[in-house]
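Q: Protein A?
A:
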Amino acid sequence: MGSPCHSVSDLARFFPMATPSGLRFRRVVARIGAVTACLAVSLPVLESVASAAPLVTVSPATITYTDTSAADTFTEVRGTVSSSSAVSINGGSNSLPNPPNTAVVFYTSGKIGTYGTLWMQNSGAWLYEPNIRAINGATGTVTDTFTFEASDGTGTGSQNLVVTVNGVEDTPALTVSTKTVNDITDDLTVSTICGSSPGSGDPYQIDVGSSPTNERCHLAFDNSTSTKYLNFTKTGSSILIDLRRAWTLTRVGLTTANDATERDPTAFDLYGSNTSTSAGMTLIQSVTGLVPPSARFTKYSDVTISASAAYRYLKMTFTGVRNAAAANSVQMSEVELSGTTATNAYTEGDPPMVIEPTLLLADDN
C-alpha cells in the first residue's frame, strides 16, 4: 500500500489553485481514528522580507570644476531629482533666498556647501550655484557632497550629488588703481601746528627760516586766502611736508597773499624722500621764471611737475622773490599740490585712512 501522503506537486494537481509568489505548501498530517490521511493545504506563510526603500534618481549625479592658476569663473549647473515619494535635501533649509538671477523661479529649499549652494524646487528641478572665490581658493582636489532623500514610511532612499573641485595654487593678481587728486594735502589733518621756527609741526614744519606766530607754514595749506604763510629768511626758506603716503606730483599751484607784492615767490625747488623729512631728499624739479599776478588773493598759472617717482616726504625751498632787494620775506596765501596715487602698496605703520590706490588682491587664501 502506498503512502497516503502525496507530494506537493501531486497536491497541486489534485487541488488546482493559484500559487502566488511568496506562498508555499505545508504538509499537514491528521489522524482520524485508525485512518491516517494526508491532507495538503495551501497555507499562505509570510516570509520576513524587508520592504524596499523609495528609489531616488539624481541627474546629473556629479559635477566637476577645474581651477587654473588664473582668476577663473565658473557657471551654474542645473539638474533633476525624482522618486516615488517627496524628495528633500538632507540638512537643507527652507529659508534660503532664491539664487541670483532667478526671481521668477521659486526654489523651496537649499543648502550651502563649502564650494557652492544647492537649491531645489518642489518639482525636483535643482540648481547648483558655484562659489567662485572658494573654488579659486582650492589648492588641490576636494569634494562637496549633497544628499537627496525620499521616505515612504517603510524606508528611506537616498542618492548623493557630488561636486568635485580640481584646484590649483592661484597666482596672486595685484591690481593698482591710480587716481589724480587736485590737492593731495586736503586729506591731511594738522595734529601739531607749524612752529615759528624749525623742528616742530605735523604734518607741516619749517626747515629753514622763521615766521610770525599768526603766519606759520600750515596756513598755506588751509584752503583759505584770508590767511597766509610768511618766512623772514626769504630765499632759501623751506617747508617740510609729510604726505602720510607716497604720491607722484603733477602740479603745484600758488596764490598771492594780501599785500607786499615784492614778497611773491618767483622760483622754488621741490624735493622728495621716502625715508623721512630729514633724510634721503631727491630733487624732483627746479622751477624758475614764475610770473606772479599783480592782484592780491589771485592764483598763479599752474606749474606742471614731471616727477619720475612717488614720494611721501616733500621739501619746498623758495629760491626767488619778485623783488629781493625790497622784500623782507617770502609769502603766499595758498599752496596746492596735485598728484596721482602711488603705485606701491600701503604699508604697515601708515596711519589709518582711506587707502589710495585701491588694491585688489586675488589669492587662494
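Q: Protein B?
A:
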Amino acid sequence: MSVPYSDHENGSVLLDPIDNEMRFEWMDSNRRRNLFSLTRHSRIRANQVKHREQLVMIPPSLCGSKHADTVLGDRNNVPFCFVFLRATIALDIFKTTGHFHFMPRASVKEQIVVAGLRTLHQKGYNACSIQDITEAARVPKGSFYNHFESKEDFAIDALNRYWEKVEDSLRLLAEAGAPPLTRLNRYFRHLNDIARENQYQTGCFVGNMSAEMSDQSLPIREKLASLLKVWSGAIETCVREAQSDGSVRLDIDARSLAAFLLNSWEGAMMRAKVDKSHAPLEDFEKVAFTSLASATATS
C-alpha cells in the first residue's frame, strides 16, 4: 500500500508490523540513497542523524488514532521522532519523504486473532490469559490493547473468525445437483471428518464457548446465540427442501428438526472429545438420519 504524503516522491518509510521495525529511505541533495533502520524501542542520539530535517513527529491526535506508541530520539533540537499507529505513519512535513509503504506481511491484529483463536480453542476462555495469546502471536502484550479493549472483546472477534470457517462449510447444504437429504448427510459427515482429523481434541469452538461462557458474559452469550440462530437457520432451509421432496418426515416442523440436528451434533461432539472416539458421532449419524426419514422414503 502506498500513500502520497507530500509533493516529493524521492523518499519512503516502511513499517514492518510484525517486527515493529521502520526503515527510512531517501535521496539526499547529491542524489545519494540513504537508509536508516529503527526497531520500536530504539533510541537515536543526535549525532546519529545526518539529515535532521528529514523527519518530524506528528502528534497522535492529528492522525486520528487514540492508540499510538512513540519512539523518540534525543531531542537536542532535533525533530527526529516517530509515531507508531494502527494503520498510519505520520512523517515529513518538511521536504523529502514522499510516500510511505506498509510491508506486505500480516498485521499485528491478524497475528493476534489467528494465534489467539487457536489458543482459546485449545485451552478454553478461563484457562487462557492475554499473556498466553500474545506469546502465541509473538507480539508484545501491549499490542493486544491496541486492538482489543478486553479479553471478552477479543473472544467475540475470535468467534467471528471461527464463524467464517463454519459459514464456508455451510455451502455444502446448498450444493447444486444433490438431493437435500444427501446434502444434510454430507454436511454432518464433513464436520465429523474434521473432528477425526483433529483427533477429537478441540471440538467445536462455538459449542465449547457456549458450555463455558453462557453464564459468565452477556456479550459472548449474545454473540453465540446469534451464530447458532444463523447456523440452525441454514440447516432448516435444507430440511424444508427435503420435506418438500418427501424424503424427510412432515409431522415435525423444519425448524424443530434443524434445531434437533444441530443440538444433537454439538452434544455428540462433546462426548467424542471426552471419549476420544468417533463412536458418538457415528451414533449421531445413525440415529439422527434414521429419525429424519419419512415413512414413505423408508418403505
